[in-house]
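Go through this chain for my students:
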Amino acid sequence: MQLKNPILGLCQQSTFMLSAAKVDQCPDDEGFEVAFAGRSNAGKSSALNTLTHASLARTSKTPGRTQLLNFFKLDDDRRLVDLPGYGYAKVPIPLKLHWQRHLEAYLGGRESLKGLILMMDIRHPMTDFDLLMLDWAVASGMPMHILLTKADKLTYGAAKNVLLKVQADIRKGWGDTITIQLFSAPKRLGLEDAYTVLAGWMELADKGAEIAE
């Protein structure tokens, strides 16, 4: 007998809602949203697809393909949001500026946004974009959880060492409110920890877990 995380069933039934190029095209600002952010090619789409057991987010070997805010419905009150990937050099400057302006407007003014999942490639953590997102999260009081993605690309020992180092750097520079874990989409590593964070932010953790045989 084991307790089933209540977010699991919702993630498995998630469906695409809409894409928004501007904040005024987003769904009504009510309920619970968790946004997924990451530098281009950090494994954001793969992580989203693994967590939802679906191919909701488009994956591509060409970084920078996610150019809109993509909303996925879990239930009538809860949504996941795939934010544009940032940092890809070949994206035209005007488009980068458009993304930046509307991302800032979304992050700064969205009342239903309850937390931010930040993806960092474990082989290249703490990029300039990551540092900006850490600064913003702490300054705004927004809960943040970091997935060190592509952990399968390193041995477990090496991955654990990176986790401990990044954890220490974040604690030193930004305090101890930001949480972090190892994650691998192909190996399905770290799913339970990520589900626990999502359930807490979406106020599902206290609704009572289903009993699974």
Observations:
- The CA atoms of residues 169 and 203 lie 29 Å apart.
- Residues 156-174 form the longest helix (19 residues).
- The beta strands are 2-4, 15-20, 32-38, 69-75, 78-82, 113-121, 144-149, 179-182, 210-212.
- DSSP finds six helices and nine strands in the chain.
